[in-house]
Automatic annotation (TrEMBL), chains A, B, C, D:
Record's catalysed reaction(s): 5-O-(1-carboxyvinyl)-3-phosphoshikimate = chorismate + phosphate
Pathway entry: Metabolic intermediate biosynthesis; chorismate biosynthesis; chorismate from D-erythrose 4-phosphate and phosphoenolpyruvate: step 7/7
Cofactor note: Reduced FMN (FMNH(2)).
Keywords associated with the record: Amino-acid biosynthesis, Aromatic amino acid biosynthesis, FAD, Flavoprotein, FMN, Lyase, NADP
Family: Belongs to the chorismate synthase family.
Family annotation (NCBIfam families): aroC, PRK05382.1
Pfam families according to UniProt: Chorismate_synt
GO cellular component: cytosol
Domain of life: Archaea
EC number: 4.2.3.5
Name of the protein in its database record: Chorismate synthase
Cofactor: FMNH2
Length: 364, 364, 364, 364
């Protein structure tokens, strides 16, 4: 079905470009009878939008969502929900200069080749981080659906920025993750992360980082063996977020260094429920949810757009050149990414919950 | 389309169970005119099969592939290619005892819940590592197709087993990766890995590890933006391999700690071709191949089946119990996994090459 | 993927409701480099819009298309093309009265049950004939693509209205099919059809009819055996048009009464090309195009909305009642349907032409 | 996903060729817990197999189904069900002669072009009517599932052979439809049909015909608006049957000649259930089931293989030639088609019943 569609029963189709008229997404398969209006989505978009603090790009984008189909009398109808954000007039002139000069670390060069020069390169076009706003829109619907029907909740937060690593993460401080600029539950680490980002920006440079994501109250048995394992479908969706280069579940790469006797999670009964003593599996066994919290870690590369002069090619002239990337950019995309990760995970889980027959086509 | 199907134009549908009559896969969308017979597949299956060396399970499985459709006069016809391996009589009796006693680290418990007790639990059923033989069958076809039409080749090899890490990896020693038991190009590390596995087995325990995978001669522009990024579709397929818990591309998690100026790859011309000086992107920018080698690292958890007694639950009795996992198992699945990783990657790349119009429906 | 999506490589996703904010469609998979603007679509929409003549509903809808993504510098970019029509303020009050009183022949009752009362029933919501405007938008893009790359053209015209049947149909008069109100190439029949429709309206009643569709210059070999036969995919798309209840190819039901020796088409060479003397197959053998013109006939039921009082149920009161269908309606939908049929056929053929590798991802 | 796959949640993938090793199909998405063994399928296969009576080809094919995955302890497990029939040694030599001489009315010529000469042409390969055995296998599973969970039953029977038309069709005689050679409920018409077929064979010719299909006990609301209307998905599947050239629902083409006031079905309450007085809609409104019996008519062309000498081309020599079609063939395929139509319809309805949440993933 091509790269603009994801999901089987909770399906989303993305459209729009960074500097085109809009960015949008159509969601099909959301059951009828879910109360929904723009405010359910706007809150998450606001947590993603640029310009919220000094660690982010100072571009101002209002990112006001409009729902243009699929809602009637305040509820979903079972029909496709089209949501979009009209782009404000952007200054696309600086991008003229990069038309033939691919920015290192960006999709410019492969897109140029793939689309024979027809792609809309302004602001990165389809490859812009701005498209993550569409993931938030679709995922906000999914998140509300999961919460209301199954009590499922997903939280994502920053655990690493550059070489700064969060220490103390607790359910209590996760709940306050959006109270600091970098969305790190550990306040001491958050402060250091903030400084590291400001320093990177001062140096005309950028930083990467890691986001951790936890989903609780997941029923047992979501996912389908082999090609639609939860890990398969979650990673597919997560790697749709620009700048993501690594995904691990549970003990992940660290688990690769362990012995089976250390890494296997022992089953036990707690409060009448089957649980495991540890959760090295990150809530997934054989591709299926096992009832324990889902634990994912997502690695983001440092933002490709940096102020520093970089060496690159002028493709038209076939010669080496130097480039200062135009525009105002995030010195680190990680602080804006937790709502995106939460929403992407919700989108996949909503699809699987419907596939597993756990959410009916009409909500009472 | 459910969890048994992958791909859009090069499509594979898996069937079969570990201790059922067979394991098999149907491949549709392979262009007509590719010379193909069982020997093209058997070689890769032989590299995956158990019992090849002391570091593997001593189970003997012949794993002889049969192609039962889609070939005529020694060539593919454009019709679906059904390939299968008939299972030899397995001793399924030991599995009776685990019917209600889920093995830690295995899919037993979520599968029991998901399928209401109807799943074929013998030997792990659909969740068995044995199913990776079907991935090898489909991927062997894809690999031959890619090699013949576009010169694309994929190699995978072990870089870590437990805490032992390969040092010196070169194109030359990668070429000999299958010459040692653990499939590690670095012979000194290979020897230590071998010892580590034998020690783990002696301890009734198991080890995990990491496999690295390189694809060369990839054309520029494979992949589709957003939901069918190469990272998305590759990770989806790789997480279909049992025991995989982590996937990273290029500099991956290590890149998350770097600055943009370090991690961005500078463009240059070499031999008249656009290349990058470094390859931190692992050959993928914006989800599209950029012409550099594809670099993937895949983390495997330690094998869940260990000889040591483990604590678990008797679900029928709702009480704690102890379990010795029946059967003969790999103390580490990594040495058998490189051909699986190679094949899975080929499968995804063949799909994308056809989608990009780079492989015609009929080969000349 | 649900009912709002069609196609595999040329994919369309529909959204919107009759009296909602808009009706729209997103097309993905259109190759880059196709010159496209609103005027390419508006012409076909104008042939479909209501109020063009006395045989149509006197509702005035401007149906002005806006392309809001996927075009840059006047060309397609390879990105999804979102097209929509903003609905003008409709008078939805009359529909309040039918909320619980299903109109005979409409989707009201099954939709009420399926969506638990949450569906947007105003103007028929998702089930309205107004949604065919979205098929025209997607199909207009497909039609231009097919014409420009492969010279393929599709024409549809009225052959029956009620019991009036066209006689003389020639390539010459097909070319002028849009010059009369009922889009019938035979002018004498057209006049009688017009009168029949006016009489039916006068009687507070409606008529059905038949549209024939011819595609020329189709290459040999479009379609895929079994489930994606051209007949399969064309009929699937054609039955998406409200009021269509019958589809036949070539000699169709009439062919069922013939002997094989009459119905088989004899091969011969004409102008150096393999053709058949007759075309009872309607251009399709074994589900594949055979190079002859595609011939389809599509049967439309009489419009369900009639002015006459009809007996029905009040579902809320569980009692028999009488209904006068509110709104201004077409006494016969057939005269507005030829552009819809043309566009739907183009959509399917564009998908198959791309699948067959006959249209590249970038147009030169 | 290509032409070998159908369905979204009840998915089938076909493989095999007429004179290859086997014909088979893999069904995924069948809920766990359905009692199933070969006998559930064999009965329907036996009604389709050749050689049952004088009106059929005298070829003897045993068509013995084997289930090779997806069943455990006599029940479905939720895993893919692979079913196949091993082909007996066929005499493929006669087909050598038609390698370059396309048979009129068959797929030979377009297949030759599409697959560049690589297709397996023996016995028609993938395009053979023999592949309908795979539809029966998948549909037999679907039919049992629908019967057991929702009480849905589908019956198909012959209403026309050549110009002979059945008159008196009643529920009682439908029940005995398989008691005569031609599967026509009206015994007097059946006798005339039988004679017509024998006469056609004597003349070295063939006949077509029409099959009617009724599904009862369908719940309200199956189908999805626009592209997955029940008519869309049913016709897509029905046109997958070789020789089908026409499909109509309810009053179909006859309805096109009527007025709305005649064709609209009036709602009423009968036995506490909402029904319609007439059933011109054939059980489908707006693409959704309305609770009335589904009524479909399927037109089959006369069998293309006839004994009479036919004119055609020698493609290799580029010259006109004469052909006597080799092999023993059905003078009319219609008598063998009712179980195929029943099964194809069941397959689509099972998919939609699962999509609508009416059949759970595990049966109790």
């Amino acid at each position: 079905m091509g790269g603009s569609i994801i999901g089987e029963r909770f399906v989303a189709m993305s459209f729009g470009e960074s500097h085109g008229r809009c960015v949008g997404i159509v969601v099909d398969g959301c059951p009828a009878g879910l109360p929904l209006d723009e405010s359910d989505i706007q809150g998450l978009l606001d947590l993603r939008k640029p310009g919220q603090s000094v660690v982010m790009t100072q571009r101002k984008e209002e990112d006001r969502v409009e729902i243009i189909s699929g809602i009637f009398n305040g509820n979903t109808t079972g029909a496709p929900i089209c949501m979009l954000i009209w782009n404000k007039d952007s200054d696309s002139r600086p991008y003229e200069m990069i038309k033939n000069i691919p920015r290192p670390g960006h999709a410019d060069y492969p897109a140029m080749v793939k689309y024979g020069g027809f792609a809309d390169y302004r602001g990165g076009g389809r490859f812009s981080g701005r498209l993550t706003a569409t993931l938030v829109m679709a995922g906000a619907v999914a998140g509300k659906l999961l919460k209301r029907t199954l009590g499922i909740e997903t939280v994502a937060y920053t655990t690493e920025i550059g070489t700064v690593k969060a220490g103390n993460i607790t359910p209590a401080n996760i709940a306050t993750r959006y109270s600091n600029d970098v969305r790190c539950p550990d306040p001491a680490a958050a402060e250091k992360m903030r400084e590291a980002i400001l320093q990177a920006r001062k140096d005309g440079d950028s930083l990467g980082g890691v986001i951790e994501c936890i989903t609780s109250s997941l029923p047992v048995g979501l996912g389908e063996p082999i090609f639609a394992s939860l890990e398969s479908d979650l990673s597919k969706a997560l790697f749709s977020i620009p700048a993501v280069k690594a995904v691990e579940f549970g003990s992940g790469f660290a688990g690769s260094k362990r012995r089976g006797s250390e890494n296997n999670d022992v089953y036990m009964i707690r409060d009448g429920k089957v649980v495991t003593k540890t959760n090295n599996a990150g809530g997934i066994l054989g591709g299926l949810s096992n009832g324990m919290p889902l634990v994912i870690r997502v690695g983001f590369k440092p933002a490709a757009s940096i102020a520093k002069t970089q060496e690159t090619l002028d493709i038209a002239k076939n010669s080496q050149t130097y480039l200062e990337v135009p525009g105002r950019h995030d010195p680190c995309v990680v602080p804006r990414a937790p709502p995106v990760v939460e929403c992407v995970v919700s989108m996949v889980l909503a699809d699987h919950a419907i596939r597993a027959g756990l959410i009916p086509p009409v909500l009472k």
